[in-house]
Amino acid sequence: MVVIDGIVMGPQHCAYDNCSNTLVNHRGGVFCDVHNQEFGARCCVCDCQNQKIDNTQACNEHQEMWHKYNLEHSSDYLNGARRMLCKPAENPPWNKTKEDRSHYFSASRYYCVETICAPCGAVIAWTKFVKSESTTNILKFLEDVFPDEELRPDYICIDKACKLLQTAVANGSWVDWFKSSRFVVDGYHYTNHCSDDYLCRKWCNPAPQDGSAPNLVYIAQDKNAFNTQACEQLNSWLGGFESIMKHMTPSNFNWFIHSMIFYHTQQVIKRQNSQNFSIISEYFEHDDDVVEEASEIIGVGNMVWEHIVEEA
Question: Hey, which bits of the chain come out as E strands?
Answer without folding.
Answer: 2-7, 12-13, 108-109, 112-117, 123-129, 155-157, 182-184, 217-218, 223-224
